Amino acid sequence: MSYPGYPPTGYPAFPGYPPAGQESSFPPPGQYSYPSGFPPMGGGAYPPTPSSGYPGAGGYPGAGGYPAPGGYPSAPQPGGAPSYPGGQGFGAPPSGAGFSGYPQPPSQSYGGGPAQVPLPGGFPGGPMPSQYPGGQSPYPSQINTESLPSYPVFSPVSLDYSSEPASMTQGTQGTIQPAANFDAMRDAEILRKAMKGFGTDEQAIVDVVASRSNDQRQKIKAAFKTMYGKDLIRDLKSELSGNMEELILALFMPPTYYDAWSLQNAMKGAGTQERVLIEILCTRTNQEIQEIVRCYQSEFGRDLEKDIRSDTSGHFERLLVSMCQGNRDENQNVNHQLAQEDAQRLYQAGEGRLGTDESCFNMILATRSFPQLKATMEAYSRMANRDLLSSVGREFSGNIESGLKTILQCALNRPAFFAERLYYSMKGAGTDDSTLVRIMVARSEIDLVQIKQMFSQMYQKTLGTVIASDTSGDYRRLLLAIVGQ
Question: What pLDDT digit, counting tens, does each position of 404-461 carry?
Fold first, then answer.
């Protein structure tokens, strides 16, 4: 398949290779407990995104649509992460060949720097609803509950409920938006009735969970405990199982905690799910990474950089350590002279010499802004008559190759990267449910609208169609509700 405009005239087609608003902090103590075995982690080509905008804090909206080859060679086989009922280990890699090319939009517009993570106002700690008798807010800023031994407890850090959703400032859009006329107590009552008595009304649960933002779900959890003296997550676990349970629990995790938890589980026990480390650390903004590092320390009592060093090695270790500093240049202005110089440096460090100077690639790809990297890729293709992605494939292999390509793919088109990851999570026999769940949940309030569009353009079928054919039951129903159909 070929696409107009990219790669630039004069250099060969890509050979193919083989990706909410989120809160800036965490909820009150004892309020969000999660099962110790909770979802293991796991996991696409790059047509243009219709929206412009460049990623803010809430996530990584794709660039306005940059072509990029798809696929990731040398991916490890799935199944190494801790298992979860009914699902594979998170971090399981995709299989199959990569996508061969992507269309190039005429121009790309990048917005300002990272935006604040969205959180509508009100609770916790906000003004209490006036309709509750006695002037008592049904959503206390802290709810003391006994810690459930099977759950890691999510500690409080300051939450900003006043900022606009990041997706509104990034030129991208999630499929899940905050519900209008939201009433946490009413939703808590609906969920209680759905789980009360014999049997479970899964449709009622789907209707509530899929149409509320993550911030609203946190308020529902607090209201449920206030009203019934019971833990909503624990009740949901007792009523659900398998992939449906994994998906529901992921939706109720605050976004920053979910990323930190995913990283911790990717490095927990025997083996490491490198694809999860790459997917998160190589695609997030500085602010998101810094918040993940703090959450990782506060929730798991561990230093993320030290865990990365102990679980990885060589040039791949150095790349991930660079990523977890959260110190990439985020100036959205492009310096074309620097792009030309960097392209020359990269050529001399790779194709232009015997052997490879890996540190040069690490330095440039870990420090330059995503718009700057896109300009460097264009300069490289003009100079070397070969695209930078294919050069990385010739000079590197294994996890370091996948990590470097992920950075470049996100510079080209972030939604297309995640569309490719989703495609390969469902391609072939079996489904990598952990990757499917993680991406669907993590991008649902950031850029899932653009991911759906890229998916249709890249694979000539809708994301919903593929999900419907690869999943079943309430799990399929909830996934399709998240997709918006």
Answer: 999 999 999 999 999 999 999 999 888 999 999 999 999 999 999 999 999 999 999 9
Cα separation, 186 vs 179, whole angstroms: 13
Residue 292: C-alpha distances to residues 147, 150, 304 (Å): 23, 22, 9
Which CA distances in Å does 82 have to 46, 89, 362?
Answer: 31, 5, 30
- Which distant-in-sequence residues (6+ apart) come within 8 Å of 115 by Cβ? 56, 57, 58, 163, 164, 166, 169, 170
Q: Which of 56, 135, 67, 61 lies closest to 100, judged by CA? A: 67
Percent of the chain with pLDDT over 90: 60
Residue 304 and residue 247: Cα distance in Å, rounded? 25
Q: Phi, psi (5° rounding) for residue 244? A: -65, -40
- As beta bridge partners, residue 192 has none
Q: DSSP H helical segments within 350-462, as ranges?
A: 358-367, 370-384, 388-395, 398-426, 433-443, 448-459
Establish whether the linkage from the previous residue to 29 is cis, with ω within 30° of 0. Answer: no
Q: Give the contacts of 447 (CB within 8 A, at least 6 positions apart).
A: 49, 59, 60, 61, 62, 167, 170, 172, 173, 174, 414, 415, 418
- Which H/E stretch holds residue 91? strand 91-92
In terms of Cα–Cα distance, which of 480, 39, 467, 471 is closest to 246? 39
Which region holds residue 122: left if phi is over 0, alpha if psi is between -120 and 50, else beta?
left
- Tokens 């909830």 correspond to 478
Backbone angles phi and psi of 398, in degrees to 5: 70, -145
Bridge partners of residue 153, in order along the sequence: 33
pLDDT for the residue numbered 36 = 44
Surface-to-core class of residue 161, CB atoms within 10 Å of its CB (0-12 exposed, 13-18 middle, 19+ buried): middle
**Quick one: 125 exposed, middle or buried, by C-beta within 10 A (0-12, 13-18, 19+)?**
middle
Pairing between β-strand 41-42 and β-strand 91-92 as defined by DSSP bridges: parallel
Contacts of 255 (CB under 8 A, 6+ apart): 20, 21, 22, 23, 117, 214, 442
